[in-house]
Write a structure and sequence with these properties.
Chain A is an alpha+beta fold and 121 residues long. The N and C termini of chain A lie far apart (104 Å). Classes of the chains: A alpha+beta (121), B mainly alpha (158).
Chain lengths: 121, 158
């Protein structure tokens, strides 16, 4: 059987030309096989473990520092021995600014509600 | 009783009276603090932050300053100090505006009491410089607060 010829119109510049059919028909075997890569989840960015919060408690009437650079547990225990949340100011150490920051009323309330001990407000 | 004994006695009495009057003012500040704390719980975050910044903090500073003044004066003159008990705000059903109103009344009363103490001349006659400084500072702290309270009440009322 003779070869089948077709008019290839995709030729640029010189116009169409007659070519064998098997030159213009794409067959699976001459097409590169695309195999998508397996998706691998990105590993989580490595972050340094957050240092435990440090607190400072100051008596508002005497300005006495009742605890300095204390952890949460001992701060909650100290608050448990204080009569009223308005009697003290609580500060938290902010590593980013390297300074003590006064807790907002909301933050202080959260600590106060978790205080250990029996002193009622 | 000779004259010197009588004078010493009356000076001590006057100082005790001064401490009592100051304690009364401190109790009023305590009422204001409790009411502001209760109002804070009922307000939206933005108004609560404004209340904290413009009222609660200055009142708390005044509370501490006045207590320090009381304790320091008592200690310097060998008189009995006093522990100030936390106040109770009232019922939540009162609403934020009512709590702010309560605080404003207590602050106004504090200002009035501090002014009376200063006007009585007792701080000059039987007091001392740290006492006078403490009274003046506490009064300066609470003085502007009623106007700020008025502004916050206006926001709450919208």
């Amino acid at each position: 059987m003779g070869r089948t010829w077709v008019l290839d119109t995709e030729t640029k510049g010189t116009g169409a030309q007659m070519v064998p059919l098997d030159k213009v028909v794409e067959t699976p075997e001459n097409k590169p096989l695309f195999v998508p890569r397996k998706h691998r989840p990105k590993p989580p960015p490595e972050t340094a473990p957050r240092a435990p919060r440090r607190f400072k408690v100051v008596d508002i009437s005497t300005r006495e520092v009742l605890s300095a650079d204390a952890g949460a547990r001992s701060t909650l225990a100290l608050l448990g021995a204080i009569r009223s949340s308005v009697d003290v100011n609580v500060f938290v150490w902010e590593p980013s600014t390297e300074a003590w920051r006064l807790l907002t009323l909301r933050e202080k309330r959260m600590l106060w509600e978790r205080r250990t001990g029996t002193s009622p407000e | 009783m000779n004259t010197l004994t009588w004078m010493a006695y009356s000076t001590e009495e006057a100082r005790i009276q001064l401490l009592d009057d100051l304690a009364h003012a401190i109790d009023e500040i305590g009422v204001a603090l409790a009411a502001l704390g209760a109002a804070y719980e009922l307000l939206d975050e933005r108004t609560a932050d404004q209340l904290e910044e413009e009222m609660f903090r200055p009142v708390q500073v005044a509370y501490g300053r006045a207590q320090r003044t009381h304790a320091g004066f008592a200690e310097r003159h060998g008189l009995a100090g006093r522990k100030f008990e936390p106040s109770v705000a009232g019922r939540v059903s009162q609403g934020a505006r009512s709590f702010v109103d309560t605080a404003t009344e207590a602050i106004a009363e504090t200002e009035h009491l501090l002014a009376e103490i200063q006007d009585s001349m007792m701080p000059v006659e039987v007091g001392d410089a740290p006492l006078r400084a403490g009274l003046a500072e506490a009064r300066e702290l609470v003085g502007p607060l009623p106007a700020r309270a008025h502004e916050i009440v206006r926001v709450i009322g919208r």
